[in-house]
Write a structure and sequence with these properties.
Blueprint lengths: L2 H37 L8 H22 L9 E2 L4 H9 L2 H12 L2 H10 L6 H22 L4 E2 H32 L7 H27 L19 E3 L2 H16 L3 H5 L2 E7 L4 H14 L4 E9 L2 E6 L4 E6 L4 E6 L17 H9 L10 E5 L2 E7 L6 E11 L5 E6 L2 E10 L3 H9 L11 H9 L2 E13 L4 E11 L6 E6 L4
Parallel strand pairs: 1-2, 3-14
Antiparallel strand pairs: 4-13, 4-15, 5-6, 6-7, 7-8, 8-12, 9-10, 10-11, 11-12, 11-13, 14-15, 15-16
Helix pairs in contact: 1-2, 2-5, 3-4, 4-7, 5-7, 6-7, 7-8
Length: 503
């Protein structure tokens, strides 16, 4: 993500914070002069330092409320009450964005743990600070559930409470150090180290857990597969109908046709593991530079935008746009430079393969001669599927939008080069059947709402089709998994995936 994008996001929050801060100042002054001094006959004087801290505290509470509760609502009232479910989802998906959300939910409540003890003396004990933050977070989650303005998650409550605890521990240590410095200046020597170390323990534990998760991921040979189950499906009273012989034949036939894998190889219950080309930001920039040069244009580095595994570029004439996926180094090319006179130019249907190939050649894109040509919804497709038995092979599709003036306005090059890096033992049909009966699979589009709704309507699990497929894991390895098509007693057949490899 570009610096200016981050800056704009920060400015939005700062503007929101400034508005709420102004409202907090007015509200506090009204409370102090009208309710406290005039009505309540209070005699306590307003100190500038305490006044500012309390205003900042109130303003920050308002910012948290706005960020968490001011979003547009949805039709669903979702509650995910499994503890640490979001951590498991982030682990198996390998998506950086999910991990950032978890860290953000912790950090968002750290200032609350810092500001509450500073603003109100009664809140200088840990259990009071953590208790108030916990109740505040709980109120937010209940509000999100009641209004549909977000998902009520137990993990959000846990992370928020943890953040407040970390904030309190931090400010408590700072207050202890300040107190020691003050007393030392007066010739006293108060021992605070035991108390300080106790309040350091939560920070140490959080850092150790974070380092452990990171190290475990880095040290494992392959990445994680997003189809892995997190919590078992309740299969009590539900029969699994599984014709082992029929499904075995179906799986073998599909593997032979789709990937060129022989029956002998499958009987060994061992599958090859391939690694896709995984590039860096430097590789992506070099790739974009060379492609624009082939078009007679220079890359505009100032337009570079990075979003985890995706990088965006424009040419200096702002005409050509390139989106590169680093995991696989495939890309989408777009031509946005057509003027108003050319807006009425339409895409061509029924063009010949040779005609489209010639247009693609102008972009310096090499399409293999044996690529299978087809047309679908005014888009031309070149399917490339080399046999998997080779040490190095390619697979994927090239989608082309071809126009009347002989130009290409968009080209999706999804062809990925793989190389063999090892082998992996895969589960037999009987092992898959046992996993299904034990509920060791994931159903639904997500781990939450859809999963529960499908489970309620499930009466049985009759497997109609089962075949071996390959997809990239979180580290860019092309690994086997089983796709299951089953009749669950609902209106439509259910399709889901399961990891094929043994642990």
């Amino acid at each position: 993500m570009k610096i200016d994008t981050i800056f704009r996001m920060l400015m939005d929050y700062l503007m929101l914070g400034a508005t709420l801060l102004a409202m907090a100042i007015v509200g506090y002054l009204v409370w102090y002069f009208i309710f406290y001094r005039k009505i309540g006959k209070g005699t306590g004087k307003m100190r500038l330092g305490h006044f500012m801290i309390r205003i900042v505290c109130l303003g920050y509470f308002g910012v948290v409320l706005s960020v968490t509760c001011a979003r547009l609502g949805s039709a669903r009232h979702m509650a995910l009450l499994h503890p640490f479910q979001s951590y498991l989802e982030a682990w198996y998906s390998g998506e950086k964005n999910q991990w950032r959300n978890l860290v953000w939910n912790i950090l968002m409540f750290v200032p609350i743990g810092v500001l509450l003890p500073l603003s109100i003396k009664k809140f200088r004990t840990g259990w009071k600070v953590v208790g108030i933050a916990s109740l505040f977070s709980l109120a937010i989650e209940l509000f999100q559930y009641a209004t549909g303005r977000g998902v009520c998650e137990m993990d959000d409550w846990i992370n928020n409470t943890l953040g407040a605890l970390l904030g309190y521990c931090f400010i408590h240590i700072c207050m202890l150090l300040f107190e020691k410095w003050k007393e030392k200046k007066e010739g006293k020597d108060k021992k605070i180290w035991k108390n300080a170390v106790i309040h350091l323990i939560p920070w140490i534990l959080v850092c150790l857990v974070g380092a452990g998760i990171f190290s475990a991921y880095k040290l494992q040979p392959y990445g994680n597969q997003n189809c892995h189950y997190i919590y078992k499906v309740n299969m009590k009273g539900k029969q699994v109908l599984f014709d082992t012989e029929k499904l075995e034949k179906f799986c073998v036939d599909h593997a032979q046709k789709q990937y060129g894998i022989s029956e002998e190889v499958l009987k060994k219950r061992q599958s090859a593991v391939y690694q896709a080309t995984v590039g860096t930001n430097k590789d992506a920039r070099k790739y974009a530079t060379e492609l624009f040069q082939q078009m007679g244009q220079e890359i505009d580095i100032s337009t570079e935008n990075r979003y985890d595994e995706t990088v965006f570029y424009y040419a200096k004439n702002s005409q050509y746009h390139l989106q590169i996926e680093k995991k696989g180094m495939y890309y989408t090319y777009s031509d946005f430079g057509k003027d108003d006179k050319e807006e009425n130019i339409k895409s061509v249907s029924g063009a010949s393969e040779q005609e489209v190939r010639e247009a693609v050649k102008k972009l310096k894109v090499q399409i293999p001669k044996d690529a299978v040509f087809s047309e679908k919804e005014n888009r031309y497709i070149f399917a490339i599927s080399e046999p998997m038995g080779q040490k190095k092979w390619k697979m994927g599709d090239i989608y082309v939008e071809y126009y009347e003036d002989g130009t290409i306005r968009e080209l999706d090059n999804n062809v990925i080069t793989y190389k063999k890096v090892g082998t992996e033992k895969i589960k037999s049909m009987n092992e898959i059947k046992a996993d299904l009966q034990a509920g060791k699979f994931q159903i639904g589009a997500s781990y939450g709402y859809e999963n529960k709704e499908l489970q309620k309507g499930m009466k049985k699990l009759e497997v109609k089709e089962l075949y071996l497929t390959y997809e990239m894991d979180s580290k860019g390895y092309y690994r086997p998994l089983y796709t299951v098509v089953a009749d669950c007693g609902t209106k439509e057949l259910l399709t889901f995936q399961m990891p094929a490899g043994k642990k």
